[in-house]
Amino acid sequence: MLKTFSITDIGRKRKLNQDYVFTSERAIGNLPNLFIVADGMGGHKAGEYASKYTVETICNCVERSPEKDPILILEKAIEMANTHIRRRASEDVSLEGMGTTVVAATCLEGQLQVANVGDSRLYVVNEGIRQITRDHSLVEEMVRMGGIDREAARNHPDKNIITRAVGANDTVEVDFFTVELAEGDIVLLCSDGLTNMLEDEEIREILGGCGELSDKARRLIENANAHGGKDNIAVVLIEPQYLKDGLVS
User: How far is the C-alpha of 103 from the C-alpha of 236, rounded, in Å?
Assistant: First the structure.
């Protein structure tokens, strides 16, 4: 059993909300549950369309997939979403150039399977905070190559340039991660509208504080907006519930 809560917010600067979230604590196809954050990009309403359409396509593909391996299920679903987004963009000039990030996760018996394209993130928070996904961004590539340090990356002018997105190319490369969860862990999926406004330690303090998941999620949104709210903000929180023997039910 999982406790979950999801929320999106337009922020203080944007006219449209191009972030889209999906959560299901129940099985979809051969996945026991499914959680997705997508952050769309493109012209007027194109990013909004890209994120929503991508998530809907992923969910439909997952539901119909005959595969048993969660990684294969998610990989094929994201690849199909990429194909569909490319096709729609070629058919409608108003959607030309659209794309979206995607971070998706499914949890079974204490193990989290994660898929990622772009710079939306998944964290595991307990006494500390761990970023599980790796950003597909120009600045992150510069950090990995030693060109700049992590602190300089945070305020770099090219921070929003991403190197992978669903819909950007005819094929999409997806990163996968497997995480063993421990009692007390909270899983956070979010768009960069949160992480560009809040330091990791501030996120950890909020998630480690008192209150229900809904209270913590809303506090994240409020603090991101208090720091400027320069982008749309998406938050999905997952809290596995443990049995006496330590296994996730």
Answer: 11
- Beta strand ranges found along the chain (DSSP E): 2-9, 19-24, 34-41, 99-108, 111-117, 121-125, 129-131, 175-180, 186-190, 233-240
Nearest alpha-carbon partner for 165 in 37, 8, 39, 70: 39
Q: How far apart are the first and last CA of the chain?
A: 5
Sign of CA dihedral 153, 140, 233, 110: negative
The verdict on residue 177 lying in a domain is yes
Q: What CA–CA distance (Å, rounded) separates 30 from 101?
A: 23
Give the range of the structural domain holding residue 114, as residue numbers without chain letter: 2-240
Q: Which CATH number goes with the domain that contains 102?
A: 3.60.40.10
Q: Is residue 249 part of a domain?
A: no
Contacts of 145 (CB under 8 A, 6+ apart): none
Q: pLDDT tens string for the chain (249 positions)?
A: 899 999 999 999 999 999 999 999 999 999 999 999 999 998 878 999 999 999 999 999 999 999 999 999 999 999 999 999 999 999 999 999 999 999 999 999 899 999 999 999 999 999 999 999 999 877 777 767 666 766 666 666 666 778 999 999 999 999 999 999 999 999 999 999 999 999 999 999 999 999 999 999 999 999 999 999 999 999 999 999 875 555 554
**Is 248 part of a structural domain of the chain?**
no
- What whole-number distance in Å separates Cα of residue 213 and Cα of residue 35? 15
Q: What angle do CA 162, 168, 172 make, to 5 degrees?
A: 95
Our count of domains for the chain comes to: 1
On whether residue 232 sits in a domain, the answer given is: yes
